[in-house]
Amino acid sequence: MSDIHNHLGVLAADASFHEAAAALGAAVPKGDVRPLDEMLHQMQCFAAARRREVRLARLRNANRPGASQWGLRGDRVVEAISSFGAAVKALSALAGELRPLITPALDDVIALAADEGHLLSRGFHQTAVSLGYTTAEVGWLFEELALIAYRPVHIVCADGFEDFLALLDGISIGEAGLTLAGFVRFTGDPDTDRRLEKLIIRLRTAGVTASVFLALVIILTAHLVATEHSPQPVAG
Amino acid sequence: MSAFRSIAPGDSTVFTTRVVGQGPTILSGFTPAGVTFGRLTWHIELCCHDTHELDFTFSFTGVDIGAAGALVTIGNVGNTEIFVGTDYIV
Predict the structure, then answer these.
(1) Residues in chain A closer than 8 A to B14 (CB atoms)
(2) Range of the domain at A140
(3) Does ipTM surpass 0.85 in this model?
């Protein structure tokens, strides 16, 4: 079992989480929800490649001679892009299954992570690390969450659940550079891009950058709530 | 040059920047006839970037907003309409 699972798995025993999740009982999907394993595994496959690209970008920015020779081989880049693409696809499938839970009421659970000692906060931290973010970048991600009071659903889904799907559609899988993976680019679909632009501007007004991390926080929490209410514990 | 977009005071728009290695993305803009001053902010939508602010009189050109391949949000933080565009056509 991974560190992420360890951190998130014991949440069921936490009284504050139990109480917040109980309020969402009526919204728990009736059918099975797929495990997180596949999505997390693909993200971890991508993480090493991203870390290396971030280090390489720093060397290039510092004009270090020969930095380019440290770049990933083409096949490793393709592998990393493929892994992250599969992770985003799994996130989208999870979003569909967890849709009834992805409402502003879910923010009451997510807001527990405002306490940095809370297991939920530690689980989010582990997830960010698993994505290949550096310590400094993880600090930045949590600062972003703090800017919206750890209540991402109300701002991401301000114009409905379709905005969340647009965010997932807009997430770069690194096809234009691995350091872009996880951040948003336009899709080429006019309707999706109109939603994306409104979402990006809404988040920017709050001082926040649209990224896969916001989607992960929402999906992980919704999955945990579903697990909490499932008579048969959901795997993963 | 991309088409210039009108941005009302308090509003924003989003452009795509050139990918790393393709040279910088250049931002330009101007105020409507009879308007002297404009003020905008721009922010690259990636981790750990700062928001930059720019004041201008009548027009500006040649502002390098970098090459990241990411989106950039341009906000009008002045009191009058402005027009902005980049030299990168997607």
Answers:
(1) 186, 196-197, 200-201
(2) 3-229
(3) yes
